[in-house]
Each structure stands twice: as C-alpha cells, then as structure tokens.
Amino acid sequence: MAERTLIVDHLKLRYEGLFNTAELYNMIGAYFFENGYNWSEPYNQEKATSEGRQIEMVLEPNKSVSDFYKFVVRIKINGTDIRAVEVEHEDKAVQLDHGVLHLTFDGYLVADRKGKWKDKPWKYFLGLALSKYFYKNKDDKFSKLLEQNIAEIHQLIKNYLNMVNYTYSPHHDGPEL
C-alpha cells in the first residue's frame, strides 16, 4: 500500500450563475491532459428534479512524477438547481446552464506508488529512512509542484466562471479637487 500525504485540503470554490457544463468539464479535462495527468472519474451521477438537474461528480486525475512519487488530485463537483437557459450574446441565442456549483479540491502526494517498499519490514524501514532523511527535499519540491498545479486549475476555473475580485481603493495619486 502506498503512503498518501494530503497536501491541499478542501480548497473550495462556490459559484452561482451562468455557465456551460460541458465546456467546464472539457476545460478541466484539457488542463490535466496538457499537463500529463491520467484521467480517472470514479463517480458521476446526474438527477433530474423539479428544481433542475443535480450533478455529483468526482474527478481523480493522477500523474507519476518519478519512479517513487505520484500526484493525485481529487475534484468533487456538486451542481444544484441547474436549468437550461437561453441567453443572447452578440445578437445570437446561446444555450447555457444556470445553477449553483460547489467544487472542492484535494491534492495528495503518493510515495511508493508501486508498493515495492512495503512488502518486507526491512524494506519498509529502509524506505522510511531514505524518505525522511535523504529525499526530504524531493518531498518538499513535489509538494510545492502539486500545490502549484491545483492553484492553476483553481484559478483557471475561476477565470472561466468570471469570478474576478475587483477592489476599490479610495486612495489614488491623482490631483485633489
């Protein structure tokens, strides 16, 4: 059994508004494909209710980054009250979805991804000593890389959903009246 270390714990994103479900799903898949991840979707369920569609999905892309380490990203997507709406954009009718999305991101660094260092006690002890004292820099490097990948996909989704935070600062360097 491989050792999983939780690096990113429940990074959340909530959105209510217009979006294209298929386009969002394809964008997430394209990001992980472009970055060399293997795609896994262990759970995907959709229900039709009187309020709209309910979507529950778990995506688990993973990537082997060395002979010993692997990244596993878990994205839980819950969509509620999703209804198809027609919006006019540049004088054309566009079909979009309107609803509430809840996304939760978790990131795991998996050590001994093939389980070769766990079968005998002396191998387990040697692997633990090597990991703790000699490869600590690699642990830190891969942890930061995983955090960076999750931050990128999180920001990419926020940009797609147009969730930009604007701030107002009353102080400016312009002339005073």
Record keyword descriptors for this entry.
6 strands; alpha+beta; elongated; 177 residues; 6-stranded antiparallel sheet; 3 helices; single chain; 30% helix
Could you explain the architecture of this structure?
With 177 residues, the protein is α+β, with helices and mostly antiparallel strands. It has one domain (3-160). The protein is built from 3 helices and 6 strands. It has helices at residues 21-34, 121-134, 136-160; strands spanning 3-19, 43-48, 53-59, 62-64, 69-89, 92-111. Strands 1, 2, 3, 4, 5 and 6 form a 6-stranded antiparallel sheet that branches. The longest helix has 25 residues, at 136-160.
Q: Largest sheet, described in full?
A: 6 strands, antiparallel
Q: What is the overall number of helices?
A: 3
Distance between the termini: 70 Å
* Assembly level: single chain
Strand content: 35-45%
Helical amount: 25-40%
How much is the radius of gyration in Å? Answer: 21 Å
Strand and helix order: EHEEEEEHH
Tell the overall outline: elongated
**Count of domains:** 1
Structural class estimated from helices and strands? alpha+beta
According to DSSP, the number of beta strands is: 6
Low-pLDDT sequence parts? none
User: Mean of residue pLDDT?
Assistant: 83
